[in-house]
Write a structure and sequence with these properties.
The chain is about 40% helix and about 15% strand. By secondary structure, it is an alpha/beta fold. It has one domain: Alpha-Beta Barrel (TIM Barrel). The radius of gyration is 20 Å and the shape is globular.
Length: about 325
């Protein structure tokens, strides 16, 4: 038996104010984390061709962009470093005067309340572009762990608030947690990229970070896209090793994974709206195929609705400003 016209769902959609009042999912800038690419020097702003609106920045530029993000209400930034020189071990990753430690110190001095995340991986620092040291043409998982731990301690020494290993080596959370604890950082927060997929959506990031592998790919250590149960096993293992938060990457094509992880754990769940997601929206908007601002907010709402409490996104500052008038 129909209940029409007693029930009219449209009644709660009749005005912007009413729609906001009954919204089941809310975006807040405090939950956004803005990725930034740090380089050496001063007054450096190298445009990233495949990511319009974003640059590789020297520390002074990083500070300026971070101040803008904080003023818009963005909760944090995550730093990736592009060193002046690379080698087979990626040794500049733990250089205390490298671009990431220098940027961390400058940000904490300029905007002390902003949450600063430090990504931990060797791909930006190795001459071959892989996420760890090589044995022949394979990444040596166990030999890579102490190097990742050194980098994590260097970022903690500089003042980072969150250490975020993205390398997908087995056992890296335990190795980093032990190194941080031994170095006097038992309260350092650790967010593991637990479910990081071997995705084609990372292309623009590799342009930005100069981290394209010189041969092969990363399918031996990053997750295979068809798998969800494996993601839950990775999450469980990382939490057992000492992670405080877990991340799913990419976000948009993996909303089901975000939802499954959210249902399985009680810790904060982050999701990374990656470079390819950003660049596709930007390209479509530039061609006037979509309303860029609406698609931006709708995509972020979908990630939040799936269960991500923290969203890493290149739209962070723009989305924060858009929410002020939404």
């Amino acid at each position: 038996m129909s209940t029409f016209p007693t029930v009219r769902s449209r009644r709660l959609r009749t005005s912007p104010g009413l729609r906001r009042m009954v919204a089941e999912t809310r975006l807040h800038p405090a939950n956004f984390v803005l990725p930034l690419f740090a380089v050496g020097g001063r007054d450096v702003a190298n445009p990233i061709r495949s990511m319009p609106g974003h640059d590789q920045l020297s520390v002074d530029g990083i500070v300026a962009v971070t101040k803008e993000a904080a003023a818009a209400g963005v909760g944090g930034v995550i730093l990736f470093g592009i060193p002046d020189a690379k080698d087979a071990q990626g040794s500049q990753a733990w250089n205390p005067h490298g671009p990431v430690p220098e940027a961390i110190r400058a940000i904490k001095d300029a905007v002390p309340d902003l949450v600063v995340w430090a990504d931990v991986c060797l791909c930006e620092y190795t001459s071959h572009g892989h996420c760890g040291v090589l044995r022949g043409e394979s990444v040596d998982n166990d030999a890579t762990l102490p190097l990742l731990a050194q980098a994590a301690v260097a970022y903690a020494d500089a003042g980072a608030d969150v250490i975020a290993p993205s390398d997908m080596m087995d056992g890296r959370v335990a190795a980093i947690r032990a190194a941080l604890d031994s170095a006097g950082y038992p309260e350092m927060a650790l967010c593991s990229y637990s479910a990081k997929y071997a995705s084609a959506y990372y292309g623009p990031f590799r342009d930005a970070a100069g981290s394209t592998p010189s041969f092969g790919d990363r399918r031996t250590h990053q997750m295979d896209p068809p798998n969800v149960r494996e993601a839950l096993a990775e999450v469980e293992q990382d939490l057992a090793e000492g992670a405080d938060m877990v991340m799913v990457k990419p976000a948009g094509p993996y909303l089901d994974v975000i939802s499954a992880v959210r249902a399985a754990v009680d810790v904060p769940v982050a999701a990374y709206q990656v470079s390819g997601e950003y660049s596709m929206i930007e390209a479509a908007a530039a061609n006037e195929w979509v309303d860029g601002e609406r698609v931006m907010l709708e995509s972020l709402t979908g990630i939040r609705r799936a269960g991500a409490g923290i969203i890493l996104t290149y739209f962070a500052t723009r989305a924060a400003r858009a929410l002020e008038t939404a």
